[in-house]
Design a protein that fits this description.
heterodimer; A: alpha+beta; Rossmann fold; 5-stranded mixed beta sheet; globular; B: 528 residues; alpha+beta; 7-stranded antiparallel beta sheet; 5-stranded antiparallel beta sheet; 20 strands; Hydantoinase B/oxoprolinase family protein (chain B); Hydantoinase_B (chain B); Oxoprolinase-like (chain B); Oxoprolinase-like (chain A)
Chain lengths: 670, 528
């Protein structure tokens, strides 16, 4: 029997899933080990594979190592070489500050990642048409490389103006730096982010370079661990746009891993939806401090090209995941005028909500859940942690109920309603805000808090279907099993479509496709799907929209123009017959895994009595408590399903139907 | 029917919804506009209002523009009573002497209906690339009367029940240089306003118009109470701060004095500009809308960003703007270059308040949003106008050093990427750098200004340069040193060098260069 293992590292827990060929599976949550995240992977492997590892056919990994290295300032020491006159672009950024009305603020750019002394300039110049205006000062590049080496840098980023149109100078500079400093990590802006706007391109390039030594060491540790345990499968890693890469490809462009975990969860949601017969939907993964919302369309997560890490723009294609500061640990507080707010401050895992009794006195959303009977204090996290209902009630009374003249339950309801509205607002931003009607879409709740808030969010937005994963608490890990192997390559253009000969564009598409296929081959796969997309804008606009080009198109330039004019109306409500600019061309290829879906274990419905609980619009009701619901069975609200993996509220008017691979929760017609 | 309960959860939920709607409006403008000043610099703002003109929510964009929408909307609804508005109507205006700020900023308003009744207003303001007048970009530094500055649009009804008045558009098309860009960006404004209106109408349909209105009014009341509480926490007293502008742009050797007295009395705040210079010949006069924006910013910054951002915040504020002065000029004074004036006066208000709350207020920033416009024709004959906004540094504070080269107080625009500028106009950018050493010394030094250098590839072009702090340095605070003054000059192709004394409109030819360095900010505390 062949086993597939997916391991996803999160902030608090490292989640693992091991699936057999028949769809049966084992789940595992082990504590993350932030000092060296690979240790938690070792702990998980030890428990998943006590016998031998010879049967492991695939080993897939999602990790926050890349993002955390940047956010925590633990990336490698990096130097930057720029066009003469532009070393300070990284420091000045776009000149804006994040908070309008804060008088006191610090740097808004990643200046601490590459301080001034590690930003060096060389003479060279490429013009806005890609022509060389000033040849590269090759001796200057070598001198800059030596100067950076003298400062002990472990990686070098090279970002020249207009390199996305003509990468010749960057490539030559790479050769010189490599010859001067053999073995040093180098990243080129023309490869990392071949697109216009030098600040944004520099950020991605600098982060990529700074991550190379970190990811190289980290992936090396995982690989040796796999080798030591005799795991024969090669290491594959989740990248930000929701596909897997071989470890070598991940090392070559680590900036692609910044959204590894959230995109794995979105892939997991897409695959659960597919089992339920849906190609579209919304997933909401609610944890202790934050909630991640992703949109699934056409069976895959919707992508964006203007993502960020922290407040720094990182323009690599990523699953379009909106993270908001709302979760079980979000704190409720009153402003000077008695206005009630929840978050963005969070009690986190430590001290945690008041009911943890670890010293936290501020009331958190989880405290409200306890007061409202939604969470059984004796069975939280599968009974591994006892909660203190008294402490929860006390915190809410002192900080919210008493000052507002409300009862404790009334205050807890207000906290829940605000939280649910904040979550619904985020879902609305990802749907209504983009011209999609959420009422037609199923919602996939995940994470520890997904099942506690999903029905309320659905009711708020008029959604009538929830598709609940078999293992909602480890959706990212299960998503790894479902992700395709995927490579993508891009080329910058920034020219009007009517000025690009069709033959040139056809040749460019063919060349990009060949590069992509070669990358697939290096990971031992043949492409099963090929997608070619153009990022385009009207001449004069600064932001692009994506349009698909049919693979065999004989007139891609004309196709791009026609498609863009239509897409613009859909996106912004107005359009016109005007010249269109091709900004970039991108080819994506995929090969999909052949695995079966996770199958829920069979077993009888396990009743757990009943209790009084606040179930949203219905108010306080007596809810049946169940600990399991076997496939084929139905359950009508009011009820609460408490599994090891999470708590699902089923308010009156909703009905739960268990399938082998998921639960379907539907709102009954009134 | 039972009265709707104003429960705390519903109010907070509505507040979040309003913020999200304003942000959605902002995104539509930013992403679908074509002018570089909008799409790169984000010089546009969106707000929602009650039918009486009280602000409900604002997008997170430029405080300067957000403040300016308030009087514009107030003026539009005086001209066109909301009771007579119909679905599909659109109203607009830009006249600085009738609620506007300066001519390029066009305000646009769409009513929000619940059934037959107007329950709210959805409005945007956007800096249009060109509105006619003496120079491309409509910000001529040599203007001495409003008639030099472009086309004034009084409060107008642009569309009646969905049908745009073609006559208004024809008048505009005959008076501005880049009508195509204007029309496009106006569509972005309309699209944003309509989206905002549709979202609010959905909210009214869900909650009912009357309960929604009650909740909206409660939000405003809460913001007022919270602001009053924050003002009451400041010590009572009157503090005066005096400063000056380099010149008025026309009489280059004469500084323009500015004086503000800020009085905290109980829970209200008075900002009095008595003693400020009479209006001047050049275009640095500020229409009251811009001054209000500066005062709003200072008030919000000092009372705390946690307070919901709506019209309630401004009720405890009283402004005294002497008629015929720099901050309340009479027709037909020129007003296009008011940004620098608003920034200097915002710094002055904060400088006065620093006496009341020294820990919360940093040393003066560079008070610079240097605005540089290039306009001409490309080699193929097509016209272009590009506008750059270049910041200085932010001041040092009790908490740390200032930041180099960053938008401060009422401004929060983005710079133009060199790659975009070179793609849009026949210019080459030779340098984008921190102006090292320009920040004031101090325990926490001030942030440095920015150096930029441009070369003209295809002349002639018209340059309009609106600088500030070339002659008067930003002061330090509590023993900190002043920032270094700005400097700028033109290097002619033949080697000649012409200093720019703060403000200039001139013609540049192929091969000429503009070199500019903005001011650094003041340091905080005596240097160690």
């Amino acid at each position: 029997m062949t086993l597939e293992i997916g391991i996803d590292i999160g902030g608090t827990f490292t989640d693992a899933v091991c699936r057999a060929a028949d769809g049966s599976f084992r789940l595992l949550k082990v504590a993350s080990t932030p000092d060296d995240p690979s240790r938690a992977v070792g702990h998980a492997l030890e428990r998943l594979l006590p016998g031998g590892a010879a049967e492991v056919g695939r080993f897939l990994h999602g990790t926050t190592v890349a993002t955390n290295a940047i956010l925590e300032g633990k990336a490698a020491k990096v130097g930057l070489i720029t066009t003469a006159g532009f070393a300070d672009v990284l420091e000045l950024g776009r000149m804006t500050r994040a908070a309008n009305y804060d008088l006191i603020f610090g740097p808004q750019t990643p200046v601490e990642v590459v301080p001034a002394e590690r930003r060096l300039e060389v003479a060279e110049r490429i013009g806005p048409d890609g022509a060389v205006l000033l040849p590269l000062d090759e001796a200057g590049v070598a001198a800059a490389a030596r100067a950076l080496a003298g400062q002990g840098v472990q990686a070098v980023a090279i970002c020249f103006l207009f390199a996305f149109l003509n990468p010749a100078h960057e490539r030559r500079a790479q050769e010189i730096v490599a010859a001067t400093l053999p073995g040093i990590a180098i990243s080129l802006s023309s490869e990392v982010d071949p697109a216009i706007r030098e600040y944004e391109r520099t950020c991605a390039t600098v982060f990529d370079a700074a991550l190379k030594p970190v990811l190289d060491a980290y992936l090396g540790r995982i690989e040796s661990m796999l080798a030591a345990r005799g795991v024969p499968a090669p290491l594959q890693v989740m990248h930000s746009r929701g596909g897997l890469l071989g470890a070598a490809a991940a090392r070559a462009k680590p900036i692609r891993l910044t959204l590894s975990g959230p995109s794995a969860a979105a892939i997991g949601a897409a695959s659960v939806l597919r089992e339920a017969g849906c190609a579209e939907g919304i997933s909401i993964d609610i944890g202790g401090t934050s909630a991640d919302i992703a949109v699934i369309a056409g069976g895959a997560p919707v992508l964006r090209h203007d993502g960020s890490v922290g407040r720094t723009p990182v323009r690599v294609p990523t699953a379009d995941v909106l993270a908001i500061a709302a979760g079980g640990g979000s704190i409720a507080w009153l402003d000077a005028a008695g206005g009630l707010h929840v978050g963005p401050q969070s009690a986190g895992a430590d001290p945690g909500p008041a009911c943890y009794r670890r010293g936290g006195a501020a009331p958190a959303v989880l405290d409200a859940s306890v007061v409202l009977g939604l969470v059984d204090p004796a069975r939280f996290a599968g009974g591994t942690m006892k909660l203190d209902a008294e402490a929860a009630a006390r915190a809410i009374r002192d900080a919210v109920a008493a000052p507002l003249g409300l009862g404790v339950e009334e205050a807890a309801i207000a906290i829940h309603r605000i939280t649910n509205a904040a979550l619904a607002e985020a879902v609305r931003r990802m749907t209504v805000g983009r011209g999609t009607d959420p009422r037609e879409l199923p919602l996939v709740p995940a994470g520890g808090g997904g099942g506690l808030h999903a029905a309320a969010i659905a009711e708020e937005l008029g959604m009538i279907r929830l598709v609940v994963p078999v293992a909602p608490g480890v959706l990212a890990a299960t998503g790894l099993l479902e992700a395709p192997l995927e490579h993508d390559v891009a080329q910058g253009f920034f020219r009007a479509t009517e000025l690009i000969p069709e033959a040139e564009l056809r040749d460019a598409m063919a060349a990009l496709t060949a590069r992509c296929t070669a990358a697939m081959a290096r990971d031992g796969a043949r492409p099963e799907e090929t997608e070619i997309t153009a990022a385009a804008s009207f001449l004069g606009q600064g932001h692009t929209l994506d349009v698909a080009i049919p693979p065999g198109s004989a007139t891609p330039a004309a196709d791009i123009r026609a498609a863009f004019i239509a897409v613009h109306r859909d996106a912004y409500g107005h359009t016109r017959d005007a010249p269109v600019r091709l900004v970039a061309l991108r080819v994506v290829q995929r090969a999909r895994p052949r695995g079966v879906a996770l199958i829920a274990s069979q077993g009888a419905a396990a009743p757990g009595g009943e209790r009084r609980a606040w179930l949203g619009e219905a108010g306080f009701v007596t809810a049946r408590i169940l600990r399991a619901l076997p496939p084929g069975e139905r359950l009508a609200g009011p009820a609460i399903l408490e599994t090891i993996d999470g708590t699902l509220l089923v308010p009156p008017g909703w009905r739960l139907t268990a399938a082998a691979t998921h639960l379907l929760m539907e709102r009954l017609p009134a | 029917m039972t009265a709707h309960r104003l429960d705390p959860a519903s109010i907070e939920i509505i507040r979040r919804r309003l913020d999200a709607i304003a942000e959605e409006m902002q995104a539509i403008m930013l992403r679908s506009a074509v002018s570089p000043i909008v799409r790169e610099a984000n010089d546009a703002s969106a707000s929602l209002f009650l039918p009486d003109g009280t602000v409900l929510a604002q997008s997170n964009s430029l405080p300067l523009l957000l403040g300016c929408l308030v009087p514009a909307v107030g003026r539009l609804i005086r001209e066109f009573p909301v009771a007579a508005m119909r679905p599909g109507d659109i109203y607009l205006m830009n006249d600085p002497y009738d609620g506007g700020t300066h001519i390029p900023d066009v305000s646009l308003l769409v009513p929000v209906f619940a059934g037959e009744e107007v329950i709210a207003l959805s409005a945007t303001i956007l800096h249009h690339q060109d509105m006619g007048g003496l120079t491309p970009g409509s910000v001529p530094t040599s203007a001495t009367e409003i008639f030099h500055e472009g086309l004034r649009l009084p409060p107008l009804q642009l569309a009646r029940e969905g049908v745009v008045d073609a006559q208004i558009m024809r008048i505009i098309s005959r008076n501005i240089r880049t009508f195509d860009a204007f029309e496009w960006d106006l569509n972005a404004q309309i699209s944003a306003c309509r989206t905002g209106a549709a979202r609010l109408a959905e909210l009214a349909a869900k909650h009912g118009a009357a309960p929604l209105t009650a909740m909206l009014r409660e939000l405003v009341r809460q913001a007022e109470m919270a602001t009053r509480a924050a003002i009451a926490a400041l010590p009572d007293g009157t503090w005066v701060y005096e400063d000056q502008l380099d010149n008025d742009g026309v009489e280059l050797d004469r500084p323009v004095p500015l004086r503000v007295a800020v009085t905290v009395a109980g829970d209200s705040l008075t900002i009095d500009f008595t003693g400020t210079s009479p209006q001047v010949r050049g275009p640095v006069n500020a229409a009251p809308a811009g001054v209000m924006a500066g005062a709003f910013f200072a008030l919000r910054a000092v009372t705390g960003p946690d307070i919901p951002n709506n019209g309630g915040c401004f009720r405890p504020l009283r402004l005294v703007l002497p008629e015929g002065s720099l901050v309340n000029p009479r027709m037909p004074a020129a007003v296009n270059a008011r940004t620098a004036t608003v920034k200097v006066l915002t710094n002055a208000i904060l400088g006065a308040l620093a006496a009341a709350a020294p820990e919360r207020i940093p040393a003066p920033n560079a008070a610079v949003s240097c605005i540089v416009s290039f306009g001409g024709r490309r080699a193929d004959g097509s016209p272009y106008v590009v506008t750059e906004v270049v910041a200085g540094g932010s001041g040092g504070s009790a908490f740390g050093p200032g930041v180099n080269g960053i938008s401060t107080d009422v401004s929060n625009t983005m710079n133009q990427p060199a790659e975009m500028l070179e793609s849009d106009a026949p210019l080459r950018v030779h340098r984008v750098a921190v102006r090292r050493g320009s920040g004031g010394a101090g325990r926490h030094p001030g942030g440095c200004g920015i150096l930029r250098e441009y070369e003209v590839l295809h002349g002639p072009l018209t340059l309009s340069f609106r600088g500030e702090r070339h002659l008067t340095a930003p002061r330090g605070a509590l023993g900190g040193g002043p920032g270094r003054v700005a400097e700028a000059y033109i290097l002619r192709r033949d080697g000649g060098r012409e200093e720019i004394r703060s403000k200039l409109s001139t013609v540049l030819h192929t091969g000429d260069r503009l070199v500019m360095g903005t001011a650094g900010a003041g340091g905080w505390g005596a240097p160690p």
